[in-house]
Amino acid sequence: MSDAMFPMEQKRPVAPWLQSLWEGLDFNKIPNAILLHGQSGIGKFPFALELAKALLCEANHTFKPCNQCEACHWFYTGNHPDFITLVPETHRKLLPQADYESDDAPKRSKGSKEDSDGEASEKQEKKNISIEETRSAIESLAIGSHRGGNRVILIYPLELLRSDSANTLLKSLEEPPANTIFLLLADRVDRVLPTIRSRCRLLTAPRPDRLDGLAWLKTQLSNIVGLKVNESDVETIYDEQGGAPYSVLDSFIARHNKDDKDELTIAIAASRLLLQSLSQGARIPWLETAEKIHKAQYAYLLATMQRWVSDLQLVSQGGSPRYYPKHVATLRGLAQTARVIKLLQFWKSLLQARRSENHPLASRIQIEALLSQYQQVFEG
After folding, report:
1. End-to-end CA distance of the chain
2. For residue 219, what are the CA distances in angstroms to 212, 215, 229?
3. What is the C-alpha to C-alpha distance for residues 72 and 54, in angstroms, rounded to an integer?
4. 45-80, pLDDT tens digit by residue?
5. Under 8 Å CB-to-CB from 177, ≥6 apart: which residues?
6. In terms of Cα–Cα distance, which of 20, 30, 70 is closest to 52?
7. How many angstroms separate the Cα of 221 from the Cα of each of 38, 120, 227, 228, 230?
8. Order of strands, edge to edge, in the sheet holding 83-86?
């Protein structure tokens, strides 16, 4: 089978900053369960797909995946019978050769009545992994592998598993089926059940050095035909994304494809508005701001506020901003009027809000409350 069958962009090479993690794997002693965790948008999912393909590869030599054997071909086309995935509907586009447009269409065409609460509920449900899907996947493990080799089950994001689904997974981890490897991915490992963590080998995915991450990102962007970007804009968004190259790449691709409904595109635009408001300190128009941004991902908005406040704390202590270096003058001005005790209280409020960010009730009201509290940081 020729290598031409696998275009280079489909080989999903491991990102440079994750290379040492890959080289540290012993494919002769792979544990039954691996929990790969780290910041969102740094390449954990492509890494896990490459690892899954390597574990299913049937080449005789040690370099895997070979991208030439029948197993690699099946994986590339999304048809390998021993590769099982548990991802929410919103993440299925990340899978190899996945095309779920036909699955989505009936759901989008249900009626014409506008119900914001219903739409929000349906959108939230698409971000979860249902108990039915989990049970079905776990039950299929009772059957031997189709090829007689390894079987891989990939779950992402692990922290979004509902409690009933997590308990079903835990039972399988306690008595793992033969030749079955669980690849579990989490953006927030602190939200994963301790009982699940204790049964996995934990691998921490590092965030790239800023220069290395930017260099990789600019190379990827330069390979996109017809895409024109401003280098300064790339660096600004990179910093605002907390140094997550894959997230930045996805946002530029969505912008290039003029996908105005892309969640990340909406979130970045809302984040820009939020930053403009946060920079005004005591003069923040919090009601107006909440009105304009509340439809964006609540978790993303909270992360933006956390990064801003983190930088504000750093600057107030004489340090340099980590996420928003281009706003250093504004941050220094705000640091002079910020009340330290209120700033710490606001930080604790953000931490509390992040604990329930995936299930926000009336997110607009919560955003209003947080922005109002932020305003009080600068008032006497």
Report:
1. 72
2. 11, 6, 12
3. 8
4. 999 999 999 999 988 877 789 888 999 998 988 889
5. 141, 142, 151
6. 30
7. 23, 33, 7, 8, 11
8. 83-86, 151-155, 180-186, 33-37, 201-204
**Domain range summary for the chain, segments of one domain joined by +:** 3-204, 210-376
- Whole-angstrom Cα Rg for the chain: 22
Q: Choose the CATH number for 3-204 among 3.60.21.10, 3.90.190.10, 3.40.50.300, 3.40.50.1970.
A: 3.40.50.300
pLDDT in tens, 275-291: 999 999 999 999 999 99
Other Cβ atoms closer than 10 A to 168: 17
The position carrying tokens 């009336």 is 362
Whether this model's pTM surpasses 0.85 = no
CA contacts within 13 A on the Cβ side of 151:
20
Joined tokens for residue 15: 């990102």
Rounded distance, CA 364 to CA 296, Å?
A: 10
- 279 Cβ contact list (under 8 Å, min separation 6): 327, 330, 334
Q: What are phi and psi of 34, to 5 degrees?
A: -120, 130
The residues, any chain, with a CB within 8 Å of residue 164's CB and separated by 6 or more, are 131, 134
**361: CB partners within 8 A, 6+ apart:** none
- Write out the two tokens for 123: 């959108």
Q: 300: closest CA among 275, 325, 329, 282?
A: 275
At residue 124, the 3 state secondary structure works out as helix
Pull the structure tokens for residue 270.
């809302």
| Distance of alpha carbon 79 from alpha carbon 69, whole angstroms | 14
What residue type is 318 in one-letter code?
Answer: G
Nearest-angstrom CA–CA distance, 343 and 352: 14
